[in-house]
Amino acid sequence: METNFNNNQEEYDLQQFAKRKIEKLKSFYSHAFVFFIGWVIYVLKEYFGVPFNFLPIKYINGFVMAIWTTAFLINAIDLFASFKIFGTEWEERKVKSILEKENQKQKWE
C-alpha cells in the first residue's frame, strides 16, 4: 500500500512539474512574439523614420530595447540552459530532498 502511495505521489509531482514547465514555455513563446514585434517597431522607427508617436510605442528607444533584450535573454537562459546546468538528475534529487524534509516534519508533528 505504501509503494502505491509513493508511486501516486511521484506521478502527481511529475505532472505538476510538467504543468509548470508548459506554463513557462507558453509564457516564453508569448514573450518572444511580443519581443519580435517590439524589435520590428524599433527598427522601423529608428532606421526607416516611421513616425510612431503614440503611447507606449513612442518610448521605444535603444535603452529600452537593451533592457528588454537582456530580460528576454535571461528568460531564455533560465528556461532552456538551466537544464544543462541543473539537469534532470539534479531536479530529481532536489524533489526527493524536499519531499523527505516534508515527511520528516509530518512525522515529528
Quickly describe the structure.
Helices cover 83% and strands 0% of the residues. The chain is mostly helical. The mean pLDDT is 84.
Q: Given the structure, what is the number of helices?
A: 3
Gross morphology is elongated
Report how far apart the termini are. 23 Å
**What is the makeup of the main sheet?**
none
| Assembly classification | single chain
Q: Specify the structural class.
A: mainly alpha
Gyration radius, in Å: 22 Å
Helix content: over 70%
What is the averaged pLDDT score?
Answer: 84
Segments where pLDDT lies below 50 for 5+ residues?
none
Count the beta strands: 0
H/E series? HHH
Name the beta content range. Answer: under 5%
Characterise this structure.
This protein has 109 residues and is mainly alpha-helical. It is 83% helix and 0% strand. The chain contains three helices and no strands. The longest helix has 46 residues, at 2-47. The two termini are 23 Å apart.
